[in-house]
Backbone:
């Protein structure tokens, strides 16, 4: 089997996920581009390869059991293991999200992708990650997932608009990250949550003040942690994010 570092990034056909793939590819890694849209996935792979990245497409809908199982089989057939998993795929669930008038379907959509999808993909990939010498899992969270920042914010400047689906789903993801870290503490798997900052992507109508490349930097850092690196943490470029 290949000794080249193997990574899988979900939701990697655009935005932050694509830039994570670029950054990991620049390290000489073999990067799986996970995405459910075939046309966008293959276009991203083609663009990455043109930029010198050793990329391959992974059909992947994180909300579908069969799709995730097939993705794990594809990675196993290709490399026999997985070194790094970046759970980047995410949705808002649909806006607006004022709690008193929220469409409950929006809440379900956000949790299904942003939380349950992460659990589904992580568990499917864990057997492959266990075969790695230095496995890493990075869960892409958000500043709005910080309860401390939510409660300390007097307005919408730091933590965005009212959001009863998206923001709580990222808080939920942070809590899930901690639970994985607790269960895996006696293994060599490091799992952390990453905060990319307010990044301009289609998720926020490109209103963010950071570029996708800037947003990807923390994920790349956590994906390349040394063996004695932290686990069960929440990090941004400046350091630890308060829960």
Residues:
């Amino acid at each position: 089997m290949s000794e080249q570092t193997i990574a899988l990034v979900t939701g990697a056909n655009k935005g932050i996920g694509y830039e994570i793939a670029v950054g990991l590819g620049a390290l000489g890694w073999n990067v799986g581009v996970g995405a459910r849209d075939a046309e966008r996935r293959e276009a991203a792979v083609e663009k990455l390869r043109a930029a010198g990245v050793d990329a391959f497409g992974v059909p992947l809908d994180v909300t579908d059991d069969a799709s995730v199982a097939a993705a794990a089989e594809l990675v196993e057939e290709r490399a026999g293991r997985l070194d790094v998993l970046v759970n980047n795929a995410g949705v808002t669930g649909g806006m607006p999200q004022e709690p008193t008038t929220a469409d409950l379907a929006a809440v379900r959509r956000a949790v299904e992708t942003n939380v349950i999808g992460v659990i589904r993909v992580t568990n499917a990939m864990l057997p492959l990650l266990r075969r790695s010498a230095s496995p890493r899992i990075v869960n892409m969270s958000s500043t709005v997932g910080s309860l401390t920042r939510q409660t300390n914010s007097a307005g919408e400047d730091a933590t965005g608009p009212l959001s009863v689906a998206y923001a709580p789903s990222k808080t939920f993801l942070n809590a899930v990250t901690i639970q994985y870290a607790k269960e895996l503490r006696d293994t060599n798997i490091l799992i952390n949550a990453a905060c990319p900052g307010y990044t301009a992507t289609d998720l926020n109508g490109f209103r963010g003040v950071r570029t996708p490349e800037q947003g990807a930097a923390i994920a790349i850092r956590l994906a390349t942690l040394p063996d004695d690196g932290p686990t069960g943490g929440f990090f941004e470029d400046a350091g630890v994010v308060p829960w």
Notes: The chain is about 40% helix and 15% strand. The radius of gyration is 17 Å. The mean pLDDT is 93. The first helix runs from residue 15 to 25.
